[in-house]
């Protein structure tokens, strides 16, 4: 499917195109799913500050790709890959790459993979990246008020692996000296800190923002 300048051939019924306001990038998203938000912007800024020299970046649970695109814009010449379990979200992200055909370096440096972080070794080699980011589902699987839309539900509820498996996946793909940056609600701060430490990652920075907590954790060299 080829894109024209307006992106009309890439935007399917019900989808919208938003301006990311970074390097002219645009993003396709479906309002029925979980959409790009200020959380992604804050996490991208935090991660870029934590390791500005990052060149190999992987996002775990990349959704429609907004955070991956935004982080790529902040890190010049970084190779960025998003891993996402929901195929509908991967389709959106891949079509957003086509939508930005006027940014040729992006076409070479961003890709998206449909897969499950619980089988991380199937997609990425051990110690193969220097920055991992994630804005994972906030709440455990037993949470109430589940959305009937699977994509929306999976964005906020741990339907496909919890915090422990996420941190283990990040530790597996991080090279020594690399950083893992994630954002969670403040209610899960102690749990996250304990799981990061148990996995052998060293917390280097914690910030609080709008009842959220951001972690940067290093893999010891």
Automatic annotation (TrEMBL):
It comes from the Bacteria. The keyword Transferase applies. CDD domains: AdoMet_MTases (cd02440). One of its GO terms (biological process) is methylation. GO terms for molecular function: N-methyltransferase activity; nucleic acid binding; S-adenosylmethionine-dependent methyltransferase activity. Keywords: Methyltransferase, Transferase. This is Methyltransferase. The lineage of its organism: Bacteria, Bacillati, Bacillota, Clostridia, Eubacteriales.
């Amino acid at each position: 499917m080829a894109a024209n300048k307006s992106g009309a051939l890439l935007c399917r019924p019900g989808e919208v195109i938003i301006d990311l306001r970074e390097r002219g990038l645009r993003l396709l998203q479906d309002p029925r799913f979980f959409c790009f938000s200020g959380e992604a912007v804050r996490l991208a800024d935090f991660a870029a500050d934590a390791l500005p020299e990052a060149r190999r970046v992987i996002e775990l649970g990349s959704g429609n790709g907004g955070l991956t695109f935004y982080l790529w814009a902040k890190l010049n010449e970084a190779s960025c890959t998003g891993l996402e379990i929901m195929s509908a979200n991967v389709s959106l992200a891949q079509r957003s790459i086509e939508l930005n055909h006027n940014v040729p370096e992006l076409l070479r440096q961003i890709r998206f993979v449909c897969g499950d972080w619980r089988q991380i070794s199937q997609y990425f080699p051990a110690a193969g990246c220097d920055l991992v980011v994630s804005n994972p589902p906030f709440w455990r699987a037993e949470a109430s008020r589940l959305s009937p839309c699977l994509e929306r539900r999976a964005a906020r509820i741990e339907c496909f692996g919890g915090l422990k498996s996420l941190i283990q996946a990040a530790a597996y793909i991080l090279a020594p000296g690399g950083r893992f940056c994630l954002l969670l609600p403040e209610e899960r701060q102690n749990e996250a800190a304990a799981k990061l430490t148990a996995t052998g990652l060293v917390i280097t920075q914690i910030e609080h923002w709008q009842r959220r907590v951001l972690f940067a954790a290093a893999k010891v060299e």
